[in-house]
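Incident review: delayed structure delivery

Summary: a single-chain prediction request sat in the queue longer than the usual turnaround. Root cause was a stuck worker, restarted by the on-call engineer. No data loss occurred. The affected request and its eventual output are reproduced below so the record is complete for anyone auditing the incident later.

Affected input:
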Amino acid sequence: MNIFSHTEAEFSAQFAKGKLFARDLYRQWFKKGALTLTEPAFIQAKACVEAIVSSCDWTLPEIAHVTKEGDTQKFLLKTHDNQMVESVAIPMKTLMTLCVSSQVGCRMGCTFCETGRMGLIRNLTAAEIVQQVFAAKFLLNIPIRNVVFMGMGEPFDNYDEVKQAIRILTDQNGLALGMHGITVSTSGKTEAILRLAHDKDIAPNLAVSINAPNDALRSKIMPHNRKENMAKLKETIQAYTQITGREVLAAYVLMKDVNDSLSYADELADYVRDLNVKVNLIPYNAQSNDRFQSPDNEVVDAFLARLRSHNIRVLLRRTKGRSIMAGCGQLGNAVLGGKLTQIQDRMRL
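Output delivered after worker restart:
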């Protein structure tokens, strides 16, 4: 049994005779990042405690590489089958946000995304998702407060494992992250969006990648749009917000001479006008074998201003981690052969 795969209640339920000890071990592991078996209560029940410990896999994730740009850190975890999973810790004012991966690679094929060039290698387990947060907090000593599923992969292609990971991350007897601090980003999987809307077990924030104001352009840069067009996506977002009462973050990656004209800003404003969304503008980040370029700052500012002139709620995401291939759309470079700095003294508990 892998400790990273279970909530405290699920873990403790496996030990009828030592349920309270199992609970305390679980709490200690996720609150402190280590086990201390020298506490009096554990010593008195040594046989029971040792039986619990020996029946569980407490293997720590291996940090293969770390790179930094200021306070932004990208790190790679090596899986049991030698896959590399990328995560990025990002400073957000006084808080640290961790961008986690849900898959190795991705099958969605978005043309502006490095991960999309990999194709899908495999889904990550809930344990492998949780380990990213554990590694950031206890191996790299990063005080993570928020988690966004915006790393490698389409989270809704791995719904059940992502859901379990969120349950574990928000378990108050474990890492105890707030549900309001969890965001799941999708390329527009409408069936899964509705599934989340009706899910009684988790209630994370939702982000949807729009990236174009019409079907013709969106289908070119996001192949999934050919299966589920923008009308269906809009209908789904409307249903989601009505069911949940929660706002949706609509991500729009700005690419030079592709989707950054003021006429496209007008079209986008028309598309989102009657939706409970906030538009998140993201200037394109350079990748290997670039097909696109980032627009000039003046163009970004003009696009932002035009949206606001239509009374659209909008924010601009300032690029962080671009030089270490840690920005939005850049993950997957390490797997494709990008150069990374190997950690000098690998940090372990």
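Verification: The domain at 62-324 is CATH 3.20.20.70 (TIM Barrel).
Action items: add queue-age alerting; document worker restart procedure.
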